[in-house]
Amino acid sequence: MIKASTMIKNSSISRLKGVQTKEQLNYKFFFLFFAFTLIYSAGCTKPVEAAGVEELCPQPRFTKQAPPEFYNLKNPLTPTEENIKKGKLLYLNKSKPMPCKVCHGANGDGQGPMAKSFKPHPRNFTCAKTIDGVPDGQLFWIIKNGSPGTGMMGYKILKDDQIWQIILYIRQLSTHMS
Ligand code: HEC
């Protein structure tokens, strides 16, 4: 009892003096910590919702358009089994410094292990609604030069034919159900 009353006394004196007691500070820290946890967890759940299905297909697309001399290019290669197979190997493993699947996903759905760290998200090649409207020449230009300001880097190291093979592979990833 004596202790409690002296505490009250002490704290009212220190409040008068404009000094905060240890108890008051602890309380403040606890409150701040609680508020921070609330705000932080609210912030954490948001991006998960934002990356939900509605954003995947049709996928919003703001990529810069290729200059006309690229945009209008048609794939010079035919979709033979061999060309598609080579494209697939490059997409999954062989393209340097990083294979496409790391971001675009092994099945092309734009959900590779690194995808979450990028906004805009990597293109979802399984979404016909989005990818069908993007001409071959545009895909070629972006794969060669990248999309500045996004996670998509340029693959100058690939030969033109290799890029066209990858495009043949990408084209048959969309199911035409989406
Ligand atoms: C480090 C992550 C990353 C890797 C690796 C990567 N991409 Fe991308 N890619 C992206 C992102 C992010 C976008 C979205 C860019 C945008 O919105 O402009 C993108 C967009 C694209 C597009 C869409 C172009 C358009 O005009 O819509 C194509 C095609 C593409 N990537 C092909 C590839 C290919 C092929 C590879 C492998 C040779 C590859 N990407 C590797 C992150 C990546």
Q: Roughly how many Å is the radius of gyration?
A: 28 Å
Largest sheet composition: none
Pick out the low-confidence regions.
43-54
Please name the fourth-level CATH homologous superfamily of the largest domain. Cytochrome c-like domain
User: What does the oligomeric state look like here?
Assistant: single chain
What is the CATH architecture descriptor of the largest domain? Answer: Orthogonal Bundle
Number of helices: 9
**CATH uppermost class of the largest domain:** Mainly Alpha
Could you state the order of secondary-structure elements as H and E?
HHHHHHHHH
Number of strands: 0
User: How many structurally independent domains?
Assistant: 2
Overall mean pLDDT:
83
Beginning-to-end CA distance, first to last residue:
73 Å
Counting helices, strands and paired strands, the structural category is mainly alpha
Overall 3D shape: elongated
What name does CATH use for the topology of the largest domain?
Answer: Cytochrome Bc1 Complex, Chain D, domain 2
Task: Describe the protein.
By secondary structure, the chain is mainly α. The protein has two domains: 2-50; 59-171, Cytochrome c-like domain (Cytochrome Bc1 Complex, Chain D, domain 2, Orthogonal Bundle), CATH 1.10.760.10. The protein contains nine helices and no strands. The protein has helices at 2-17, 22-50, 53-56, 68-71, 81-94, 101-104, 128-131, 136-145, 160-171. Helix 5 (81-94) packs across helix 9 and helix 8 packs across helix 9 (160-171). The longest helix has 29 residues, at 22-50. The radius of gyration is 28 Å and the shape is elongated. The chain starts with a helix and ends in a 7-residue tail after the last helix. Residues 43-54 have low confidence and may be disordered. Residues 61-63, 95, 98, 100, 102-104, 114, 118, 120, 122-123, 134, 138-139, 142-143, 147, 150-152, 155, 166 line the site of heme C. The site of heme C (HEC) has 25 residues, from helix 6 and helix 8.
